[in-house]
Amino acid sequence: MEYKPTIGLEIHAELNTKSKMFCSCKNDPNEKRPNFNICEVCTAQPGTLPVANEEAIKKVIKTGLALNCKILKESKFDRKNYFYPDIPKGYQISQYDKPLCENGHLVVNSKKVGITRIHLEEDTGSSIHPDGADYSLVNYNRAGVALMELVTEPDISSGQEAKSFAEELQLIFRYLGVSDADMEKGLMRVEVNISVSKTKKFGTKVEIKNLNSFKVVQKAIDFEIERQIKLLESGQSVVQETRGWHDKKEETFSQREKESAHDYRYFPEPDLPPMSFSEDYIEKIKSEILELPSEKRGRFKNEYGLDEKSTEVFVVQKYFSEYFEKVASEVDEWIDQKDDKEIKGAIKLASNYLISDVLGILGGKEFKEENFKVTPENFAEFIKMIHQREISSKVAKMLLVEMINTGGDPSAIVEENNWKQIEDSGELEKVIQEVINKNPKPVQDYKSGNKNAIQFLFGKVMAQTRGTANPQKVRELLENMLK
Ligand code: ADP
Ligand code: ZN
Ligand code: MG
Q1: Is 234 exposed, middle or buried (0-12, 13-18, 19+ CB in 10 A)?
Q2: pLDDT tens, 302-351?
Q3: d(CA 16, CA 197)
Q4: How far apart are CA 246 and CA 243, in angstroms?
Q5: Is the Cβ atom of 153 under 6 angstroms away from ligand 1?
Q6: Distance 117 CA to ligand 1 centre (A)
Q7: Out of 3.40.50.1980, 1.10.10.410, 3.30.260.10, 3.40.50.1820, which CATH number does the structure's domain 425-482 have?
């Protein structure tokens, strides 16, 4: 019988509130000056008292609602006691037995993963260990920043599933506007718990911390599954412990044996009153939830007829999808006969140009206003010119580059450069005749049966017209004239 892996995740996300969780210090993950955003409260000076940040509480409730959780009407904060230099009070204000949210779930790629709880706590400061020094430094800018912790049920069964789940959560946090959730910046942190077993009974679990990308989450899980199976197969047992991930060696390593809840001496936080929420309060937060990624996926398919792959490219980039929708609404306006097939065709054209050409030109840079100055109106106008065959696809590529560089209006640029597609047969025949006269050899080749020679002449005509000739027409005319 095969070993079955069991995986549960613990995910932390720093909330993007203006101020910290229990004081009015600025929450700025980009602050480079150490110990700049600190005060008496978040450095735990004697006699100071915490005041809870309501915005943070609302953001956690909002997340819970989006993830189908039950919101507890009565909730409270607790002290989690442990000593560490980056935690100035000697305890962390967290939540123990009455978290804000419980019992939710999220479906990712048709796999349903239970969400045990989501609670609110404060982040720690950060310790810095200068290379070779016999001392450490500590920066309290992050101390006291509102931190949300989400714990899943052990419902996940592979590294790939864990990665997809974490990615979808990140997307949801961003759609909800509760956290920027950047893994590289440590704004979102994923810890994984893994065990393997041949029976229904779960095996001993190992926790892996400090995974700084989704890819590493997957790799670390896959490695750990193999490690545990090997141990068990050779008659050894898995030790319950916390492990880290070695980036270069691509393996997990033992850090410490895991502490359990009683080590933390949890007790209710006496300096903060318990919280209670009315039905209205929760309903109001619910009404502020806009469209979630899964809903957008469905809508993009139905409304615009986009395939799954294109839809996904838009859904994972919120601003990009909003831009696309603005363009699509313009398309609706110029196709006045409301021919659904025609409209979907033009929208598909817009989506293709955005995904292949625009993203290609941006070359990995994020699609956002600073990087792409073309207005949706101008972009729709550009698509219209292609769709109505006013410009050739070759000109379209040049035009797009020009629009991105100058932010200019497409019709003005086409006018300036004389890029309008030449449709006029008389005009095209003139150019073709010239090319035929100047190139007797290929003409002869063509006539004596080398059909490929026409390609050379075609290229000459297109070059002579700087790509503005209607290629379809050129081919027809050229064939006729050679006859
Ligand atoms: P602890 O008390 O050690 O923190 P919890 O019961 O709170 O353990 O679970 C922490 C995380 O580990 C949760 O995401 C949970 O789903 C997961 N988990 C629990 N038991 C197992 C197991 N045997 N194998 C893998 N993951 C597990
Ligand atoms: Zn402070
Ligand atoms: Mg736990």
Answers
A1: exposed
A2: 999 999 999 999 999 989 999 999 999 988 777 766 678 888 899 999 99
A3: 40
A4: 10
A5: yes
A6: 12
A7: 1.10.10.410
Euclidean distance between CA atoms 156 and 151, whole angstroms = 12
Answer yes or no: is the C-beta of 16 below 6 A from any ligand 1 atom. no
Give me ligand 1 centre to Cα 154, in Å: 7
Q: Is 202 in the pocket of ligand 1 (CB under 6 A)?
A: yes
Say if strands 137-139 and 78-81 run parallel, antiparallel, or are unpaired.
unpaired
Whether the Cβ atoms of residue 164 and residue 279 lie closer than 8 Å to each other: no
Q: Ligand 1, residues 102, 189, 193, 259: which to mutate, most atoms within 8 A of Cβ?
A: 193
Taken as a whole, the chain contains a residue count of 483
Minimum-distance ligand to the CA of 113?
A: 1
* CATH 1.10.10.410, the chain: domain bounds: 425-482
Q: Distance between CA atoms of 372 and 96, rounded to whole angstroms?
A: 46
Q: Is 193 touching ligand 1 by the criterion CB < 6 Å?
A: yes
pTM above 0.85, yes or no: yes
Pairing mode of beta strands 4-14, 146-152:
antiparallel
Q: Is the CB of 242 under 6 A from ligand 1?
A: no
Tokens found for residue 57: 């509480």
Q: Read off φ and ψ for residue 19, nearest 5 degrees.
A: -115, 175
What are 201-221's pLDDT values in tens digits? 999 999 999 898 999 999 999
**Whose CA is closest to 201, among 257, 154, 261?**
154
Between these two residues, 280 and 416, which has the higher pLDDT value?
A: 280
Mean pLDDT, residues 182-192 taken together: 96
Encoded tokens for 223: 């490695």
